Amino acid sequence: MDTSALPSTASPRLPTWLPLLAAFFALYVIWGSTYLVIRLGVVHWPPLLMAGLRFLVAGLLMLGWLRWRGAPWPTLRETVAAGVIGILLLGFGNGGVTLAEHWGVTSGVAALSIATVPLFTLLFGLCWGQRNTGLEWAGIALGLLGIALLNLGETMSATPLGAAVILLAAAAWAFGSIWSRYLPLPKGAMASAVEMLVAGAGLLLVSWFSGERLQHWPALGGWLALGYLVVFGSLIAFSAYLYLLGRVRPAAATSYAYVNPVVAVLLGTLFAGERIGLAELLAMLVIVGAVVLIAVPQWRRH
Q: pLDDT tens, 285-297?
């Protein structure tokens, strides 16, 4: 019997570019939108409590999924290393962003401040013997000018404590990112699961001892914000980041650093009535330009 005329039962294959497109969308738009969602969420939740719940729930979900897939438990040494990195990246990093937005820093300015992470990364890299190129030094100098311009703006000058906390958050994320390369972290996504669990538990402890308490049960908007941060911000977007790291050049995977601020500013303006002044606009152009300068040598190496 001639079967050549029969319809094929094989499932159609997706174009190879489609998963990449979806991953970049998650990295640019979803991560960029989390700054606005954090600002909406802290209206209903105490900031550290919300951040702690976000990472604890996301960590438990990821750990459960990994164990169901047969991933081994990390060793004690790996757990301690991942816990330290989790405290730096998620505790000080994301926790600091949440606090800063609670204290009045707008979502767009918060994202713009976190865009300075590549600048701090290059500076901290010097502690481990990393040598920077001329373009990278130019990017650092331009980025420091951008930070100065940013602090002249109305948002940051009106909330000096928030400005200090969010720059500390960027520095902590950068330091943890560099240090993580030299620590015995668990393999694959298990490192992320442990980092989120430890950071979530740590943030909840700090929340309790700092006196944060729920004054009333959060409204539906608060639960939706928390759910969005858990599912989209901490699971989908981070998984997309890991996916891209394994398939594209590092400079492409980390390009979110100069796309997220633009997305956050646009969303904050459209949906939260945020306004960005001339100083902040100039700072955004300068900082984005600085990060592009820093990325150029990475593109050349890879």
A: 888 888 778 777 6
